[in-house]
Amino acid sequence: MAEKRQNRIPRHVAIIMDGNGRWAKKRLLPRGAGHRAGLERMIALSEHAFDCGVEYLTLYALSAENLSRPEDELQGLFRLFREYFTENAEKLKAKGIRLNVIGDLSLLPEDLVGIIRRGVESTAGGGRGALTLALAYGGRQEIVAACNEAVRRGKEVTAEEFERLLWTGEIPPLDFLIRTGREVRLSNFLLWQAAYAEFYFTDTLFPDFSDGEFDEALRSFAARERRFGKV
Ligand code: FPP
After folding, report:
1. Using one digit for the tens of pLDDT, what is the confidence trace for 155-200?
2. pLDDT for 14-39, tens place per residue?
């Protein structure tokens, strides 16, 4: 039977954290200041989301397409990623949250990849939830990589088998996708996984996306009727 109106918390939430640049511009600050504010919001919001009972949180931190941004903006983002993985892995581990990364890491600086791998390994045992960062990520690229893997294995696959070949293969289905920053599009994020997710779009720029607005989004999710194509 289709899953009807529900009061429960979505198990897997993803967020497209958009609007850092505009947040900075409004304050006559450099774009990097917007990303710094976004990082601080991201840290507090992820803690809040797990406290609310979300088990899997997937955050779009850098798309493959973002890699063609100006070099100084990219270097600033890489510095934030290094800082995040170095300073937060222990804290997440203490809370039982494992860190996970999806994307084409070969497009990132080698030293950053080393820092990411250490963060992922050190939190691997966490049983309370998983925080997945999408870095150098593209949904089409992920699907092509899974197709190539299926071809390499040399036999036809079912949808369920194909899903396990995606970078998100170990993560349960996406329930709820939030995008901040006024844009109403997917921008190559979790294309396959979004098939039956509920969407929530808000004008709020990511650094201003408060815990309270996240709660409002959860209430909106709880009021939805999910039919998964059934009646
Ligand atoms: C999109 O806003 C945001 C990004 C490309 C970067 C998101 C990064 C963070 C929130 C920091 C995350 C840090 C870690 C460690 C994962 P935009 O720059 O496109 O904003 P705009 O649309 O207003 O220009």
Report:
1. 999 999 999 999 999 999 999 999 999 999 999 999 999 999 999 9
2. 999 999 999 999 999 999 999 999 99
The residue among 1 and 183 whose pLDDT is bigger is 183
Q: Are 202 and 216 in contact (CB under 8 A)?
A: no
| SS3 category, 128 | coil
66 carries an active-site annotation: yes
CA angle 49, 83, 179 (to 5 degrees): 40
Residue 111 CA to ligand 1 centre (angstroms) = 21
Distance CA 182, CA 148 (A): 35
CA distance 176 to 14: 6
Residue 84 CB-half CA count within 13 A: 30
**CA nearest to 171, candidates 190, 185, 157:** 190
Does the beta carbon of 112 sit less than 6 angstroms from any atom of ligand 1? no
CB 22 within 8 A of CB 67: no
CB of 16 sitting under 6 A from ligand 1:
no
- The fold of 12-222 is Undecaprenyl pyrophosphate synthetase (3.40.1180)
